[in-house]
């Protein structure tokens, strides 16, 4: 991968960023798939921090909920009650930023199934500015992936993951209906993932944090939060967190989700994905790395899509799950190989499972240095 260039100061939507300069700056403000989350979970309450905890600074809001609002004295009145205890409702249960960074480093080191340098040849080609992402111009004549060692795909978690990708209809508004085999494939992926050091590290951490009393409870929750169906469109049960984040969807003529390098490679190989450009290439000199890119997916455009490159399926699944459990609907500060990285998750508030638990609406990388 290329040497990292300074991160983008300008935001995709023109919003200013006024956070601590030591923290990673976002290379996109809000990906378009977040539009699929209910309005109550986005920025519909400008006078409240509801759904806005730790968001980027927006000068158009009358009050703020970012990390430095207390320093500037411009927090919303409910900032302390809604954002004061990240992760859990009581400070004694909260997972700290330091703990998140520590466990993410352990997960990073545990990913022995990741691609090695020689397994992937990436051709990132032309980098554009954030102001050009809406142009829909193909500035890269060559595919993104020059070479991938497909022996990776025979590893149990890769094979189980790939089997899931063709189980979905990408258009929202069309209900998903799983066969017995497809449901079994979900269980197979979870079973194979839980055998890995990555997921054992995650479960051990969450068990120590009193989030789960047993591994089976953890697996059951993962199945519900990731594979449970809810409705983004007019049809009942037309989406899930897994479909959105890893497989990708099309809503209102735009690509939403689609944050997985394996899916991208396979679709590009079939001639269904046309790589246009990128706005960010991460600082890691080995895999996994991060790329924020623009592409066309069989006739539909993705304005900004971030993805890990070269990571194992369980690695992405673990980090997104960690952030959704520890920081649901908020930014989640992590550290990978000594480099800070931030993941944003959103909850789906229109329906729940279990005792009021929320599904994953989306999860993606929003910043890194």
Give a verbal description of the structure.
The chain is an alpha+beta fold and 369 residues long. Helices cover 28% and strands 20% of the residues. The chain contains 10 helices and 10 strands. It has a 3-stranded antiparallel beta sheet with strand order 5-6-7, with helices on one face. Strands 8-9-10 form a 3-stranded antiparallel beta sheet. Helix 3 (97-110) runs antiparallel to helix 10 (313-326). It starts with 68 loop residues before the first helix and ends with a strand. The model is unreliable at 2-22, 32-44 and 85-92 (pLDDT under 50).
- What structural category characterises the helix and strand content? alpha+beta
- What is the quaternary state of this protein? single chain
Number of strands: 10
Give the termini separation. Answer: 14 Å
* Mean pLDDT across residues: 84
Rg, alpha carbons: 19 Å
Subcellular location: Secreted
GO cellular component, one term: extracellular region
Catalytic activity: ribonucleotidyl-uridine-RNA = a 5'-end dephospho-uridine-RNA + a 3'-end 2',3'-cyclophospho-ribonucleotide-RNA
InterPro entries: ENDOU, EndoU-like, EndoU_C, SMB_chordata, Somatomedin_B-like_dom_sf, Somatomedin_B_dom
Keywords, please?
369 residues; alpha+beta; 3-stranded antiparallel β-sheet; 20% strand; disordered N terminus
